[in-house]
Design goal:
38% of the residues lie in helices and 11% in strands. By secondary structure, the chain is of the alpha/beta class. Strand 1, helix 1 (14-25) and strand 2 (47-53) form a beta-alpha-beta unit.
Length: 197
């Protein structure tokens, strides 16, 4: 691409978060808590407009429900993605709501962090749900032999994905002025689905 050639990004839902990350950090990864990527807007050089349709900028409670209960592909409920399968997708954890938005509490009224791996282990959510043992066996591959080693593998994966999601949130939440010539457009709405004819 030429330096003067400009493009527009049109994105929806999770695609908006990925696009926002790319604009800010380009091809840089998440880094670590001690070594974050540089917010240099390196992905924005050839972008003029980013048009975001229904972006979950502060997360979605539905992601928590899907990670703990599974997700039906259609309202008819013919096929369901089990929690153990969804629990291997990094984007599902990245869609979890921010702590200051969810204000989640336990049965004692104490505030909890939905991105805390120990909470997920204690509750047996997602990959660690005992009812997901059969699915876990199917998706864990040949590397883990015994049920206990498969469970340990799942525990480590889930903790990594939760910690990565926390980094992802912190990178997107960092306050920064966008560069001149980059314009953000937001389309969102709340309402009932339109009746089909």
């Amino acid at each position: 691409f030429g330096d003067n050639q400009k493009f527009d990004l049109i994105c929806h839902s999770m695609g908006c978060l990925v696009s926002r990350y790319y604009l800010r950090y380009g091809n840089q990864g998440l880094g670590t808590s001690d070594n974050p990527p540089k917010l240099d807007w390196s992905g924005s050089h050839n972008i003029e407009n980013i048009i975001m349709v229904a972006p979950p900028n502060l997360g979605s409670v539905e992601a928590l429900r899907d990670l703990t209960e599974g997700y039906y592909l259609h309202r008819i409920k013919l096929f369901k993605y089990p929690p153990a399968v969804l629990g291997t997708w990094p984007s599902m954890y990245e869609l979890l709501p921010r702590q200051y938005i969810s204000r989640a509490t336990n049965h004692e009224g104490k505030e909890i962090d939905l991105l805390d791996p120990q909470l997920w282990q204690h509750m047996g959510w997602g990959l660690l749900d005992p009812k997901q043992e059969k699915v876990l066996n199917q998706i864990s591959g040949t590397g883990a032999k015994s049920p206990s080693s498969k469970r340990l593998q799942a525990k480590r994966l889930q903790a990594k994905l939760l910690n990565d999601a926390k980094l992802f949130h912190s990178r997107l939440d960092k306050k920064a002025e966008s560069p001149e010539g980059l314009y953000f457009w937001l389309f969102a709405g709340v309402g009932k689905p339109t009746e089909g004819k």
